[in-house]
Amino acid sequence: MAKAVILFLRVCMQLLALPIYLLSFLGIWDPFCKKIFFPFCLEKLTASYNRRVSGHKQELFCNLQEFAGPSGELTLLEIGTGTGANFQFYPPGCKMTCTDTSLNFQRGLSKSMAQNQHLQFQHFLVAPGEDLNQVADSSMDAVVCTLVLCSVQSTEGVLKEVLRVLRPGGAFYFLEHVAADPSSWSYFWQQVYYPTWKLVFDGCYLTRETWKNLEQAKFSEIKLRHIQVPLYWTPVQSHIIGYAIK
C-alpha cells in the first residue's frame, strides 16, 4: 500500500514539474540547470544554510589546525567548492586547493575569496571528485567535502581519491545530507520527491546512505554522527557530520 501511495504522489510531483521534464526531454534543461539555475540557487541558499549549520561547522572544523604538517602550515583540498561556503570556517594561513566539476560557480566563489583574505588560495582545479589526478599522492593534510557526495557519480570513487591524496594521519571532513530513518515520514517524502528532485537539482540523490560508504572505506578512525538540520518543509534535514583519519 505504501509503495502505491509513493508512486501516486511521485506522478503528482512529476505532473507539477511537467515543463521541466519537457525541457529535459528536449535536451534544454540540463545545460540550463548546470550553467544558470543551480549556480543561482546555490548562491542564494548558501547564506541561509550556513546560518542553520554555523554551530555545527564551527564545531566540525575547530580542530583542523591540529592536522597541519611539521611546518605548521595546513594544506587543504576542498572537493566541490561551489561558492566557497566553508571558507569562513577555515584557520588563517590555510593553503587551499579548490576543485569543482565546472566554472559555473565563479561569481559566488570570487565573492567568497575576496571576503576570506585569511586563506592562501593556491590552485583551482576543474575535476570530478572521482578523478583528482592533478593532485599528488599523500600531498594534503586535510580534505573537505560538504553537500557533494549526494550528487557524485561514485561515492566509493571519491573516497578512494580522498585516501590517495591524504598524507598518513591526515583527515577527511564531511557534512552531507543523507537518507532519513526508513520508518520516518521524512524518508517517505524523500522517496516521493526523489525523481523530480534529482532532475531539478542537478543529479542530487535524496536517499543515499553515505555513512555506509565511509564505514567501508579504509580509514583508520571515523568520528561520525547523525544530526537534523532545521531545513523545514524540505526532504534534506537528515545529515551526517564528522571526520575520518587516514
From TrEMBL:
Gene3D superfamilies: Vaccinia Virus protein VP39 (3.40.50.150). One of its GO terms (molecular function) is S-adenosylmethionine-dependent methyltransferase activity. Pfam families: Methyltransf_11 (PF08241). Keywords: Membrane, Transmembrane, Transmembrane helix. Residues 77-174 form the Methyltransferase type domain. The chain crosses the membrane at residues 7-29. This is Methyltransferase type 11 domain-containing protein.
